[in-house]
Design goal:
Elements lengths: L2 E7 L2 H17 L4 E7 L2 H4 L5 H4 L7 H8 L5 E5 L11 E6 L7 E4 L14 E3 L3 H10 L4 E3 L5 H9 L5 E5 H6 L8 E3 L13 E6 L3 H7 L5 H16 L8 E8 L2 E9 L6 E9 L3 H14 L2 H5 L2
Parallel strand pairs: 1-2, 1-3, 6-7, 6-8
Antiparallel strand pairs: 3-10, 4-10, 5-8, 5-9, 11-12, 12-13
């Protein structure tokens, strides 16, 4: 292969991630020519409604997958947290890059921490997962939907529409905006989205040549942790339409997975965790999901 075409969303963060992948590939394959294929997705275009009401995070993938199917692109770069738990049959994840900071960030002009927000403060996030955990900790907060790219969300904060907003640390770091982070919302108190902080590269499932090309970018440790989180989410039938969080760490040959299912309306949350072998991340994900269901998560999920 002498030319590789990479499909990407057009947001600044998506373009950064795709350029990052392209730079890594150029270093490993100096003779490879790379072209970006920027595309607008339905998830990017519909900003006046939450993802939960318009079909979920898979709306960020469809146009990129169509570009691969019709020959305009060879691969697509995604935030793994936006990738559905089960891809359509023609596609597969060819590589997962080393995970960046997986946690969320409180961003505010005037306040340093969640606990410093005044009673009734306005907090912006469209994530049901974030809403559930915020309400569990601060039921007095007024939480409003906030969509758009990182710059749009920060502009709304700076204009005074919100007292604080919650964004992913990794996105702020990648865009050179680390100084906007007031507080990192870390585990075990505040769990991230499944696979948050990891970049995935999607390919056609039958393209062994592309998987070989991407092999040098694949981080096996990240893939194990993300695999356990995604297995849990799949067992729970998770999507952006339900508040599910998960975070897995690897220590030698042992994985530790913590999962959460919440209710955005009142902050009721159910948690479970377990340790398992790195040789079988799916079994660990299934076990934590089963524990969550046994503790009553099915009622919150409607299953």
């Amino acid at each position: 292969m002498t030319l590789l075409r990479i499909a990407t969303r057009q947001s600044p963060l998506a373009l950064w991630q795709t350029e990052h992948v392209a730079d890594l590939l150029r270093r490993q394959h100096p003779d490879l020519q790379i072209e970006l294929v920027p595309l607008s997705t339905r998830g990017d275009e519909i900003l006046d409604r939450s993802l939960a009401t318009i079909g979920g995070k898979g709306l960020f993938l469809k146009e990129l997958e169509e570009a691969m199917l019709d020959g305009r692109a060879d691969i697509a770069v995604h935030s793994m947290k936006d990738v559905p738990m089960a891809l359509d049959a023609p596609f597969a994840i060819g590589a997962i890059l080393r995970r960046a900071d997986p946690f969320d960030a409180l961003v505010s002009v005037h306040f340093q921490r969640i606990d410093a927000l005044p009673e009734g403060a306005r907090v912006g996030t469209s994530s049901l997962r974030r809403q559930a955990q915020l309400r569990a900790r601060r039921p007095d907060l007024h939480i409003g939907d906030l969509r758009g790219n990182v710059n749009t969300r920060l502009r709304k904060l700076d204009e005074g529409q919100f007292d604080a907003i919650v964004l992913a640390c990794a996105g702020l770091d990648r865009l050179g905006m680390h100084e906007r982070i007031r507080q990192r919302l870390t585990a075990p108190d505040f769990l991230p989205a499944v696979a948050q902080g990891a970049i995935g590269i999607e390919i056609a499932a039958d393209r062994a040549d592309l998987k070989s090309l991407l092999q040098g970018l694949h981080d096996a440790d990240t893939a194990l942790c993300v695999g356990a989180e995604r297995a849990m989410n799949l067992r729970l039938h998770g999507s952006c339409q339900v508040p599910i969080a998960g975070y897995c760490t690897l220590d030698d040959d042992s994985l530790h997975l913590t999962g959460l299912v919440g209710r955005a309306e009142d902050g009721h949350c159910i948690r479970a965790h377990a340790f398992g072998s790195a040789r079988d991340p799916q079994a660990l994900g299934d076990r934590v999901a089963a524990d969550l269901l046994a503790r009553g998560a099915g009622a919150l999920l409607g299953i």
